[in-house]
Amino acid sequence: MLQASTLVAAVLGGQALNEAFESLWARPLPWTPANRGAIQDLTYQTLRHYGRGDAWIRRLTHRPPPLPVRALLLVAIDRLDAAASEVHTTVDQAVGAAGVLRPAIKGMVNGVLRNVLRTADGAPAEEEARYGHPAWWLARLRRDHPIDWSAIAEAGNTHPPMSLRVNRRRASAADVAAALTGAGLVYRDQGPYGYTLERPVPVQRLPGFTEGMLSIQDAGAQRAAGWLDLAAGQRVLDACAAPGGKAAHILESADVSLLALEKDAGRSRRIAENYRRLGLIGEIRVADAGQPASWWDGRPFDRILADVPCSASGVVRRHPDIKWLRREADIRAFAAQQTRLLDALWPTLAGGGKMLYVTCSVFREENQDQICRFLERYPDAQTLPLDGRPDCPLLPDDDHDGFYFALLQKRP
Length: 412
What we know:
By secondary structure, the protein is of the alpha/beta class. It has helices at residues 2-12, 17-25, 33-48, 50-60, 67-82, 87-101, 106-118, 127-131, 135-144, 149-155, 173-182, 223-227, 245-253, 265-278, 322-325, 328-345, 368-377; strands spanning 162-166, 187-190, 194-197, 214-216, 235-238, 257-262, 283-286, 301-307, 349-359, 381-384, 392-394, 403-410.
């Protein structure tokens, strides 16, 4: 509980959760897979339900407690709700952890948690508490998705599915299915490229993963390569490629010449690691896709994957810190960044070529509105249908995360 509260405190202090995890695991402690898993689960669940825990703390304290204590209370309150049969153990552990942090506040922690237990039927009713998202986020969901907004919010607080993509260059779907069955893993078919496990497992338990037979990739993200309409000999650009899942899928799908761009040198190494594991070859370059003069040789691309930076509002169940670190002004900033990238990439596309625009956002400003503005600026652009629709907004559900896809073609 104490380690999880340290991570939660880091996020509330403005640090990204993945960076907080890296700092924690770097400590010279005897971490076991079970330790790591328990800490991760506590942290993720606490951040998913932060709105409810924060409402309790505001109701039951006279003044905001210090950040480490507030984080500990958040973890403990979430644990009280998740493990109703272990409430006394949870309170005892929280009080013990408080003694390590600040012995003087043990009584306060004990009092807050016991008051939560006494008034459980009167849980906070504020929307942030009920839906586990900031008020501005919920208001935007209501505006953009008047029918589905509550389902989207609720999906954001669930455990995400674990989907696998078969590397057809190293194994058949039947090979992978047999290996999964042999490992005692229950799965279901998930589209044309792979499977979804009934229960997520550590990567070490996936048969054939180290040998490059399969990759972990959300079922929604797996649609991108197929919609690019790939063919042997094409020049293809993945403009924002890290960590390399979609780039690898492109190379698995067709014998194309692929250039993968990534602005961050550290993240670009993950693309190379994925290629090595999967037995793929493709050019990787550290460059800003929005500055073609620094990387483009003037030869047009037949296909471009523009998987642009975004709010990540469609994948918050995988990154629950995002919804509490984001501010509403960030959405406009992301939209401006997306516009810059689209304007820079469009001249590099060949006449008749296709660009697939992708976000993992559920906000219209980054999706439908962005494409409408683009079509107004470029009369030589047209949208092509995806599954019979002008575009494809995927809302998060039991099968996949939230994404947006639009296929653009440049008129010859």
